[in-house]
Amino acid sequence: MARYTGPVCKLCRREGEKLFLKGSRCLSPKCAIEKRAYPPGEHGRDTQFRRGRASDFLMQLREKQKARRIYGVYERQFTRYFRKATRQTGLTGTNLLVLLESRLDNVIYRLGIASSRAQARQLVSHGHFMINGRKTDVPSALLTPGDVISLRQQSARTTYFKELRQEIDDRRVPDWLSLDTKNLTAKVKSLPAREDMDVTINEQLVVEYYSRR
Predict the structure, then answer these.
(1) Taking the model in full, what pTM does it have?
(2) Per the structure, how many domains does the chain have?
(3) Pair (148, 173) in one structural domain
(4) Has residue 27 got a pLDDT over 70?
(5) For residues 64, 66, 69 and 73, what is the CA-based torsion angle, rounded to 10 degrees?
């Protein structure tokens, strides 16, 4: 399945809540949810008035789709993450979220280096970062405790990163990460706990969705 390249605000409207896919715009009055809090499409406005309880399968599907859209992963990728989560000890749903949070693009976003996960993917794809001293351009690279993320010397001289040093605030960095704002160097201190993840995902519904297959 190809990556979605259409208007991302439609994805938020489809899920009925902010998925924070456009960075600072999501916090402004320009956010589509603030203007049109109903599903997109010709009959979108009518659906908010329809009565009846959604089926269990529909709720499970919507939760899975919401998780995919928040983290910006393909359907096959998401399925692989789920299968990997089932092979780990502990709760499958929590394991799945930990895997998604451990992606390099998500960590860049969590550090505040990018305003959205989409921007973080672009920065990583352009080869601006190194993991443990080795250049990487793979947004889906999974990080583990002890990994060090650093900025390439060539990238540090670009206007974007020069200005970022003046604006970035390490007080918003989650407890499982640490950030040196002067050098834009970060370290993964530990894997995130469920309470460290501020995503509004009911992971149990995602587990139930895959259990039906």
Answers:
(1) 0.81
(2) 3
(3) yes
(4) no
(5) -20
